[in-house]
Design goal:
Number of strands of chain B: 13
Mean pLDDT of chain A: 79
Largest sheet of chain B: 5 strands, mixed, barrel
Radius of gyration of chain A: 19 Å
Mean pLDDT of chain B: 84
Structural class of chain B: alpha/beta
Low-confidence stretches of chain A: 1-15
CATH class of the largest domain in chain B: Alpha Beta
Oligomer: heterodimer
Strand order of the largest sheet of chain A: 1-2
Strand content of chain B: 15-25%
Number of helices of chain B: 13
Distance between the termini of chain B: 139 Å
Number of strands of chain A: 2
Largest sheet of chain A: 2 strands, antiparallel
Order of helices and strands of chain B: HHEEEHEEHEHEHEHEHEHHHHHEEE
Helix content of chain B: 40-55%
Radius of gyration of chain B: 56 Å
Order of helices and strands of chain A: HHHEE
Largest interface: A-B, 43 and 42 residues
Number of helices of chain A: 3
CATH architecture of the largest domain in chain B: 3-Layer(aba) Sandwich
Distance between the termini of chain A: 29 Å
Helix content of chain A: 40-55%
Strand order of the largest sheet of chain B: 1-2-3-5-4
Shape of chain B: elongated
């Protein structure tokens, strides 16, 4: 997830109807959107229905973020040189590694 | 032996001979020919002798570093020794921190400084200003020259330093695939921020070819990143690169002082964090890095956030969200309660509605009464008819006709009464509407209330000068301020 995509995620939260499902968001996008949602709720000014929708979205985002953190597991890859200077990333710590 | 006996001048040390006569001291029995000195006198004498020797004022000393003690003030105390002797050395903080090298036990070094006597302990010491590794003399000079050259090019400038990404999804690591460093980096990342991928770009970290291997490992990451960007998979590319190596001698770390490594770090497409050797080891790679960490583990800690802190931040956002909605709802509730209160005291429609209802009830009762009366009248007629029919058949016809007429006129009569009653009810409603405040307001009257408590002002006394008023007219309301009682309630 790049910062641009995270920012785009925050923008999308502007139109709640078009917001993508929370589960499809990466950590940065979800965090950026939660920050945006909280900011808008604190600013106020929107109709009550919209405030309630924002609130519910915020709850879903928080739960999603907490789940991402709890379930996260470090992924390990290693870069290897192929013929012709090609570079490939293999899964796992590599054959030399045993611990 | 008498106390008046003088010592011969040859028995005195040369620095004291001139003063022998003036500074005669009582001779100690059995110590003929020798003066007894105070410790301070002797140490002063030694110091003077040492300082007089030009060879000791500035010199290079090569030896092996013995035990090293760093004081809390930052001064280093150590000994230099060889097979035959050892020499106490002191290296003051400012000189020490300015040096790219640090002294460590067992290291062979060349130290530059002067010899002097430290009177409180009577120790002769080498006061070190600079240190270079022995046998590395040429390399050390080359390193200083290289450092100066690269610094002049601006490669170490603070302005070049790039900020680290806050939460990199992918972290690259340039280090040896074997050994503790790669393991430590993975362990720290897994503990602090497991929501990431670490990509090892393996290399040699010491010995022949290490510098070229490090450069190749950095380039491999750059090439892989380009491939991913070209394929539109930029999110899989490393956002930061760790260059790490465990502790070792200066020679062991030498690859990280090579110009090619420095240039590869500066040219690297993403920020570089170095964690090379121990805290006191500083290489040119460290100068070139965007951030220098003291150790490999510290480098891993620097590149990712702490999961616990981020979780606390998310929880805090959740609390802010809850508070924002709660205060929003509370404000709405307060506004609603206020509206109700104002409506209850001011809105004429509420009063009018209550009166309309009363009118409706009256109208219903009136209609019911008229209908009931009509029914009773009809029943009386029927009864009369039954009683008359058997006795007077002749009159019966007439009576029947009469009754029939009466019944018809009675029905008409009852209908008219009902009509009148309805008209009266309708009139009453209209009259009430006319009497209600809305109609009055339509005629140009106004209802004045105190803004403070909503009390309707009926007497100038209730609106003293300066009180804020709310004036309701037919099509709205506005605020006003009372200016005084005017012409006194005329």
């Amino acid at each position: 997830m790049t910062m641009d995509e995270a920012a785009a995620g925050a923008d999308r939260s502007g139109a709640l109807e078009a917001a993508p499902p929370v589960d499809s968001l990466g950590f940065d996008a979800a965090l950026a959107e939660l920050q945006a949602v909280v900011g808008r709720l604190e600013e106020g000014g929107q109709p009550l229905e919209e405030a309630l929708a924002l609130y519910e979205r915020g709850v879903a985002l928080q739960e999603h973020l907490e789940r991402l953190l709890a379930d996260a597991e470090l992924r390990i890859r290693r870069l290897v040189e192929r013929g012709g200077g090609r570079v490939d990333a293999l899964e796992g710590p590599g054959p030399e590694e045993n611990g | 032996m008498s106390g008046t006996e003088r010592r011969p001048s040859w028995a005195l040390p040369p620095w004291d001979a001139g003063q022998a006569n003036e500074r005669a001291r009582p001779a100690v029995p059995g110590a003929f020919g020798l003066r007894i000195f105070t410790v301070a006198e002797v140490t002063r004498a030694i110091r003077a002798a040492v300082r007089a020797d030009e060879r000791l004022r500035e010199l290079w000393v090569e030896g092996e570093v013995g035990r090293v003690t760093i004081s809390s003030a930052g001064h280093a105390y150590f000994s230099l020794k060889d097979a035959e002797a050892q020499l106490a050395c002191v290296w003051f903080r400012d000189d020490r921190l300015a040096s790219p090298f640090e002294v460590r036990t067992g290291l062979r070094i060349v130290a530059h400084g002067r010899i002097d006597l430290y009177e409180p302990t009577g120790a002769l010491q080498l006061y070190v200003d600079t240190v270079q590794p022995a046998g590395f003399g040429d390399l050390a000079l080359r390193l200083e020259a290289l450092k100066a050259k690269l610094a002049a090019e601006g490669l170490f400038d603070r302005a070049r330093k790039r900020p680290l990404p806050e939460r990199p999804a992918v972290v690259a690591c340039v280090t040896s695939p074997v050994g503790a460093v790669w393991h430590d980096v993975r362990t720290v990342l897994a503990r602090r921020w497991p929501a990431t991928t670490v990509v090892l770009s393996p290399c040699l970290v010491q010995g022949e070819g290490a510098a070229a291997s490090i450069v190749a490992a950095l380039r491999r990451i750059a090439r892989w990143r380009e491939v991913l960007l070209a394929a539109g998979r930029g999110e899989e590319a490393p956002a930061v690169t760790i260059v790490a190596r465990g502790g070792g001698s200066l020679e062991d770390l030498w690859a990280f002082n090579e110009e090619a490594v420095v240039r590869a770090i500066v040219a690297h497409p993403v920020p570089v964090v170095t964690g090379i050797g121990h805290e006191t080891d500083v290489t040119l790679a460290d100068f070139a890095a965007d951030v220098r960490a003291p150790t490999p583990s510290a480098a891993a800690e620097l590149v990712v956030p702490d999961r616990v802190e981020v979780a606390a931040g998310i929880a805090a956002l959740g609390r802010r969200r809850d508070r924002a909605l709660a205060s929003r709802l509370a404000a709405l509730r307060r506004a609603l309660a206020e509206e109700r209160r104002v409506l209850a005291t001011l809105d004429p429609r509420a009063v009018l509605a209550a009166r309309r209802q009363a009118v409706d009830l009256l109208g219903d009762r009136a209609a019911r009464a008229v209908l009931a009366r009509l029914e009773r009248d009809r029943a009386d007629v029927a009864l009369l008819e039954r009683r008359l029919r058997p006795t007077l058949p002749g009159r019966l016809e007439r009576t029947r006709d009469h009754l029939e007429r009466s019944r018809r006129s009675l029905t008409v009569l009852a209908g008219r009464r009902l009509e009148r009653a309805r008209a009266a009810v309708s009139l009453a409603g209209a009259a009430l509407a006319a009497l209600g405040p809305q109609a009055t307001l339509e005629r140009g009257f106004a209802i004045v209330t105190r803004a403070r408590d909503g009390v309707v002002v009926r007497d100038p006394v209730e609106a003293p000068a300066g009180s804020t008023l709310r004036i309701r007219v037919a099509r709205g309301a506005f605020g006003a301020t009372a200016t005084g009682s005017g012409d006194g309630g005329a």
